[in-house]
Amino acid sequence: MIFVITGTSRGIGLSLAQRYLAQGHIVIGCSRQEVEFSHPNYKHFLVDLTQEQDILNFAKNVKKEHPVIDVLINNAGIASMNHFMLTPLETAKKVMNTNFFAPFAATRAFLNCLKKSSTPRVINFSTVAVPFNLDGEMAYAASKAAVEEMTKILAKELASFNITVNAIGPTPVKTFLTKNVPEAKIQGLLARQAIKRFGEFSDIGNVIDFYIKPESNFITGQIIYLGGVNK
Amino acid sequence: MKEQIKEILKDAIEELNEQLDDNEKVEFNENTRFIGSQAALDSISFVTLISIIEDLLEEKMGVTVQLVNEKAFSSKRSPFYSIETMTQYMEDLIKEAQK
Q1: Most CB atoms closer than 10 Å: which of A1, A82, B9, B88?
Q2: Does A111 sit within 8 Å of B64, measured CB to CB?
Q3: CB contact under 8 A, B51 and A111
Q4: What architecture is the A2-225 domain classified under in CATH?
Q5: Which residues from chain A sit within 8 angstroms of residue B54, using beta carbons?
Q6: What is the CATH number of the domain that holds B73?
Q7: In A158-200, where does DSSP find H-type helix?
Q8: How far is A112 from chain B (nearest CA, A)?
Q9: B29-70 tens-digit pLDDT
Q10: Which among B48, B51, B64 is the nearest to A60, CB-wise?
Q11: Would you call B66 and A161 a contact, using CB atoms and an 8 Å cutoff?
């Protein structure tokens, strides 16, 4: 299969790129920085996902070599973990740009490539901060709530193209995104999960493996949270 | 350029028609309406048509444009009204993209 994964320079995106390369798939990734690995089946593009034209150029360049894309994983995201009163409007806009508008624009840009696949999949990223209504992460959680709604509505609107659209809501995973969250806060979050541990990259990969299976063509508009978290 | 765009529109409608039932097929002529009460196609078919046109523009003219944008919605008269209005609109968009 051919994957497009956004935000592959580090964290979850990097682990997913390596996971699907190891399984023998072709992966096209992007980020604002170069990646520190290479693989014969991997191609990297430098893309600023907050710029629509950058996304359109990215899709145009990908299409030249791969007119058909099977899986689009809208992974790239940024966090803003602060009290509302300590969150400047500009920060909230940046979070929304990367976490909501970028997957919106990327899904649109790659739609024609996805339509040509026999098992087209769009995978978005939410977070347990949404069902937790997590104080101190309002801009981040609100942007991911928007992603959830987008996932559910796109599932309906793209069903006629046989494209399934699903999301995963990870618990805290040890990445750059959570490294600045105070330890006590992280422990408090883990305590609210049914299974009280950090998420691993493989937990996320496992859910995505399920979504992309050909047999999962009847699974769409779903949000799966890790760790036994529910809305 | 207009003739080339009209050819693309024609091809796009043919491609769309392959996916439609006989009683839903869209004719390619000056009276065909794409939106409004006289529209020849439903909203899903319209979305499919837009996506086919974008694909063909890229494939045949090497130009990447998004047909549905702010400009399309802010115009007093929708550019998606007829073959003529769509051709003119697409020509403007392509010229802008090629600047």
Answers
A1: B9
A2: no
A3: yes
A4: 3-Layer(aba) Sandwich (3.40)
A5: 112
A6: 1.10.1200
A7: 183-191
A8: 6
A9: 888 888 888 888 888 888 889 989 998 998 899 888 889 887
A10: B64
A11: no
